[in-house]
Amino acid sequence: MPEFKIQHITKYSYDNFVRDSANKIILFPIADLYQEVLKHDLSITGHPLVDTYIDYYGNEVGSFTYTEPHNLLVINSQVSVNTHPRPLPLDDVAAVTQWDELFNLRHIVPYIDFLKQEYFEGLSELTPIVNGERNANDTPYRAALTFMEYVFRNFEYIKGVTTVETTLDEIWKIKAGVCQDFAHILMVMLRLVGIPARYVSGYICPNRDGMRGTGATHAWAEAYLPGYGWLGLDPTNNCIANEMHVRLAVGRNFSDCSPVKGVYKGSARHILDVSVSVGYEEEHIPQEKDIFTVSTFPKTDHVAPRNSYERYMEIIQQQQQQQQQ
To answer: If pLDDT is split at 50, 70 and 90, which confidence band does 299 have?
Structure first.
């Protein structure tokens, strides 16, 4: 029953004053039987009122507007989370019964959203692979584990090889990427056989196994299994997501789970700095640990390779759209 301390800082610095910064944030960890939010301190420049609501996918979402002229906006989220191990599926019901149950979900909300495929030309190549990987007598649980292992074995984890513009087809061609890419390919495989699949954003916490992506943000997939519910699958590490994974939000893909989206009025360009620190409750979390900086200022010829977190923050930077006065 580990307890984790997470600090997630998002900082926008503008080269001139802007105003009416309206933002939507998804920085509230999911609270349920397996994840207990003990404390959440959220501080925002100007102390605007944050209205919260539950979105279509069950995520807690906050919205606020900072109306005063400003050249700096900082969103500082500090969370203490207690996680509990989730029991694994018993998988003791006949496979044909489970597949029939999944088939009957294809027209039922909300599973429709999680069965719909994104456009992917590579489906013609991936479909026979999916059919060949699973055995005729596999249950949905066994099939999901097989697909997770396939992604882990056949896709190389390379930081910076993909960008925010990289499509599923490009990922399929190069057979490489990072956590977001692995999760999206796994979801395609699951949906091909009729298993509802959804995207999960969150954090993976440090442990002795040295898993990829520890101590920062992470992404994985969840598969819906009859008689059990949603099972987290981490293809980046070929493991079931359990008490070392802290869930922040779920959706059809990353865009449903973006931690910060917003607009502002003004002609200023901005720099985005983000820092994330994850550790055990007894550990000291530094006030700021710079992870990535994005700038709308002119760039130099030297561009450092982007890792998965940098890609993640580029997406947020793109969503911080500018409104001219």
So the answer is: very low
- Among 324, 60, 97, 86, smallest CA distance to 226 is for 97
Which CATH number is correct for 3-83+258-323, 2.40.30.40, 2.60.40.2250, 3.30.390.50, 3.90.1010.10? 2.60.40.2250
**Mean pLDDT, residues 132-160:** 95
Q: Rounded to an integer, what is the distance from CA 9 to the centroid of its chain?
A: 16
Nearby residues of 3 by Cβ (< 8 Å), 6 or more positions away: 38, 80, 81, 82, 83, 280, 281
Domain coordinates of the chain in residue numbers? 3-83+258-323, 95-256
Tell me, yes or no, if the two domains 3-83+258-323 and 95-256 fold the same way.
Answer: no
Question: What confidence tier does 315 reach under pLDDT thresholds 50, 70, 90?
Answer: low
Q: DSSP labels for 44-58? A: ETT----EEEE-TTS
CATH class of 95-256: alpha beta
Q: Where is average pLDDT lowest: 45-59, 97-111, 138-152, 270-284?
A: 270-284
The Cα–Cα gap between 278 and 215 comes to 5
Residue with the two structure tokens 């507007």: 65
Q: In the predicted model, what is the mean pLDDT of the chain?
A: 87
Neighbours of 54 (CB within 10 A): 10
Q: Indicate the helix (H) or strand (E) that contains 20.
A: strand 3-25
Report pLDDT for 290: 40
Measured distance CA(64)–CA(71) in Å, rounded = 17
